[in-house]
Amino acid sequence: MQLRYHTPLDPREQLAHGLAAPQPLALADRVRFAELDILNHVNNKAYVEWFETLRVAYVNTLCRPFFDGPEPRIVIRNANLHYIREMVQDEDYIVTARVTGFRQSSFTMEQQLWSGDLRARLEAVMVAMQPDGSGKSPLPDRLLRQFIDRDGAQPG
């Protein structure tokens, strides 16, 4: 099956390209020369950028429609990146995102990087802030329901 770049992959496509389980959002791309370090491996900065690009797409497409009124600032509080296996030039890859847990104004996101097998994982805590940054903003109940129904997330 041909891998489609820069377009959300459906569950069938995700499984066909080696993911262990379909995720709510998955996008494919290919390693570029500019993303390599002096040893011709993907630079650590590139992994962070790939994860960030998909995390922003997840928030914009799967979270923002649930906010009424002024949209909160969704900020990253902390993240842990686990490098599992190196990547090299011209490798196709798929980056995924899903929410695993949530509280009143924050959620935990798990992201994965696949290229035939799992290459890296990132866990990030995201916080909804007031538009002016003055404090936390509660997440809408409809969004929390989506985290449970779509992503399999757990409250707490």
TrEMBL record:
GO terms for molecular function: hydrolase activity. The keyword Glycosyltransferase does not apply. CDD domains: 4HBT. It comes from the Bacteria. Pfam families: 4HBT_2. InterPro entries: HotDog_dom_sf. Keywords: Hydrolase. The keyword Hydrolase applies. This is Acyl-CoA thioester hydrolase.
